[in-house]
Amino acid sequence: MQHLNLPATGKGQKVLNTDHNRDKSIAVHEMITQVAALFPDQQKALERIEMIKSEKIRYVRDQLIMVRSGIADLDAQTLSQVLNYCLENRIARAPDFKSIIGIQRKEHIQK
């Protein structure tokens, strides 16, 4: 497939650096500890975070922020189910984790 170079739209608009949106207030290892503490089974949470680190080493902070925001209002049982599913299926990416949370919420509402 041939790529076409189309003229830019939005001439004169600022190009924002996405780095400014990151939470840089704490070190990554502190963030890992904080995120793991949000899970009922911290050991399993650390296993999953290690999977994230091994697959997405450059984006660990972003992945952890996404996980933290995704689990903010989950009950312990649902959180454990999602965590176990991700570990069993080797799912490391935070967007996939959030999608699974969404599926669990829909199933819970339907019951």
UniProtKB/TrEMBL annotation:
Q: What is this protein called?
A: Uncharacterized protein
Source organism: Dyadobacter frigoris
